[in-house]
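Bug report

Summary: structure tokens for Homocysteine methyltransferase differ between web form and batch submission.
Environment: batch mode, default settings.
Steps: 1) Submit the sequence below via batch. 2) Compare with the web form result.

Sequence submitted:
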Amino acid sequence: MHSEPQQGGRSEMTDVDAVVRAPDSATEPSGPRWVTDGGLETDLIFHHGLDLPGFAAYPLLDSTDGRALLSAYYAGYARIADRAGANLLLETPTWRANPDWVTSLGGSRDDVRRINIDSAVHLAGLVEFLEPSGEVELSGTIGPRGDGYVAGERATANEFAEYHRMQIAAFAEGGLERITAYTLTTVPEAIGIVSAARNVGVRVGVAFTVETDGRLPDGTTLADAAEELWANAAPDGFLINCAHPSHIAEALRDDDSWAARVTGLRVNASRQSHAELDAAEELDEGDLDDLVTTHEQLAARLPRLDVVGGCCGTDARHVAALWGV
């Protein structure tokens, strides 16, 4: 499903030489409080028959029908949040809206700003339409510079900060105060994104993805990734996405301190590896009972888990089941 574009140009310079610290939080959630959505792109491709070149959903923002489809999609998760008595985290459809991907799909670097501002404005307009009963937060979605299933070309944290700042700044210009970077495969990219977000002045969460052995695609353990991240640029949120709960559980040991830093899970329904998912021509929606059971077992070991949603192969049915509604 994924293919890696050529690495493109460079955005403004961002100085990330200093260690960036997130404020400490004394408040520990008593359980997840925020519903977010599922696997947007796989839902659109396999359930709505859309062609999404490059796995990019942001082009839907350019048409009335596309915006209507996105609005209906988010409305399903607003209903889940209402039934669960939870808050709603709405995240922009911009996982592929960074400079390299936008240009590889026929846009220009100038389009990056427009696309991401539009996505923020669209989400803000949805809040009144959805009329959720709980609190609502809006977040700009950042994807990896590379593929997301494999570790891409190595770069420094400073280079990643310089690169991602363009998209993050566009979100801020569009009124968002929070961003989350998903499916990250290396620690330097996570550090760079946190640093760029601090420079722009928005809150930031980062989400690593893991293989079936619980390690990042470049072989780094989650324990080592968390330690390096917190030593250099501690985020406001720490998430794991695009892996089955059983794969994430492979990384856990009884004495792992990093588990207490995890604030969000957006899991896959399938137990397949990234390589198997990438080659799949049919959607593996997984076993719903297995997903719920393994997710509950994993969540019980993550005392600060606050955000629960889905990733590849999941839709509103999966997320509703994870919330018990």
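Above is the batch result. After comparison, the two runs are identical; trailing whitespace caused the diff. The two ends are 31 Å apart (CA to CA). Residues 1-27 have pLDDT under 50 and may be disordered.
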